[in-house]
Amino acid sequence: MKSEYEIISHNNNNFHIFLVNLLYRTPHIHKDYEISLVVDGSSLLITPDGTTALSAGDIFVMNPFFSHELKADVPALILSLQVAPSFFTSYYPQMEQTEFDVTLLSHARDPEVCQKVRSFLFDLAYVYYNKEAYGSLKCASLINELFFYLLTTQMHHPIPKKEKQAFLTRGKRMRNILHYIEEHYTEKLLLSDIAGQEKLDLYYLSHFFKECFGVTFQDYVTKLRCERARQLLLLTDYPLLDISISSGFSDTKYFNKGFQKQYGCTPKEYRKNFQNAKLEQQQKSMLTTQEFLSESASLVTLEKAAASGFF
């Protein structure tokens, strides 16, 4: 549950490339632009602006420090590129103050644009994982080509420098708050605890949290606790009461109510459905929040997708 995209090991701090089997990711932020392609499966992208259904071939574009949540019924395979604005600083510093207006590039509505971006992402990931000669130079070239293509085909706007600084300060506060929650969500946790930690007014923090993440503080904590409970339901034979306590719920009534809202059934029903499912479905269900593919597995997966005509 505490795996953030940013902490994946890469050789270059200015850009990250990874394939992930993703079942669920709570609302989160990062300091980079993120361009992600759904390679297989489907997912819901949830932002403070609303919920967007993603299918295989769709691409979503996230600006730095923009909160988003991902949710799938079964693990979706997603190829992601994250690029820090500082990647472009020496020759195109305007990227430090640029935001894209588009969130979804829909394969159904704009297949040509999606195909072009898919090709960039595949070539970039293939060079990265295949350890080609002069690979770093090639990756840099492809990233520049991709962003040039996006900037010349998609709507975007500049952010005033003064507003950008406020945005960075806001982003740092958001990261601090999320880190504190992820360290303490299995314990008794109150918003007043974080207000004291950040030296903020409780009323202000409540509204700040809802504005940034699109959910209340309590709903966010409940999502984290439910995901932990889901894992314990599938991976252990602990009684429901023990799972409720281990996940941070004060009693089973709140546990059942929160779990029903998150997964559409009670914890008892969820475990029973899992036990009656086929082996393949069980294996998929047991996947924790997100499983990052190794470099070798990523390369094989990309090659298979290319051979099938996806890229």
Counted by DSSP, the helix tally is: 11
- General form: globular
Measured distance between first and last alpha carbons: 31 Å
Biggest sheet record: 8 strands, antiparallel
Quote the average pLDDT: 89
User: What Rg do the Cα atoms give?
Assistant: 20 Å
Helical residue percent? 40-55%
Q: Report the β-strand fraction as a percent range.
A: 15-25%
Structural class: alpha+beta
Strand elements, count: 10
Order of helices and strands: EEEEEEEEHHEHHHHHHHHEH
Which consecutive residue ranges, at least 5 long each, have pLDDT under 50?
1-11
Task: Give an overview of the whole structure.
The chain is built from 11 helices and 10 strands. With 311 residues, it is α+β, with helices and mostly antiparallel strands. Strands 1, 2, 3, 4, 5, 6, 8 and 10 form an 8-stranded antiparallel beta sheet that branches. Strands 7-9 form a two-stranded antiparallel sheet. A hairpin with a 2-residue loop joins strand 3 and strand 4 (50-55). It is globular and about 55 Å long.
Produce a short descriptive summary.
The protein is α+β, with helices and mostly antiparallel strands and 311 residues long. 49% of the residues lie in helices and 21% in strands.
List keywords for this structure.
11 helices; two-stranded antiparallel sheet; 311 residues; eight-stranded antiparallel sheet; disordered N terminus; alpha+beta
Write the SSE topology:
Layout: E1 15-28, E2 33-40, E3 42-47, E4 50-55, E5 59-62, E6 68-83, E7 98-100, E8 104-105, H1 111-130, H2 135-153, E9 156-158, H3 161-184, H4 191-198, H5 202-213, H6 217-235, H7 240-246, H8 252-263, H9 267-276, H10 279-285, E10 290-292, H11 295-307
Antiparallel strand pairs: 1-6, 1-10, 2-5, 2-6, 3-4, 3-6, 5-8, 7-9
